[in-house]
Request: fold
Amino acid sequence: MIVVYGIKENLNPIKSQLSDVIHKSMQSVLGMPEDKRAHRFIPMDKSDFYYPGGRTDNYTVIEINMMEGRQIETKKALIKCLFSEIESELSISPVDIEITIKEQPKHCWGFRGITGDEVKDLKYSVNV
Reply:
């Protein structure tokens, strides 16, 4: 699951395109299937969204929640791909993008009535 935060006036107009860019990167680097898009957008009032100096109102936070198992190099490749694709497709500078990957053990995930360590029919590999 991916959660994206930004100032609503800047985030709302690009939500669909940003979702496409994020998903394309997830497919390219992690091998996620087309139908595995779980994105949540949190548009915020500027008065509720404090961010570091040197950033613009395009500052966007992307939190990627996933089951643990990906290699360090794979996670770094995903982050770099996102920086590159967001800049190329949306003209948002990497300085205005913050990406965090939050990994949890498979047994801490619950979906389709089972836990992640019990699932046997994923259409993608977690260990990449």
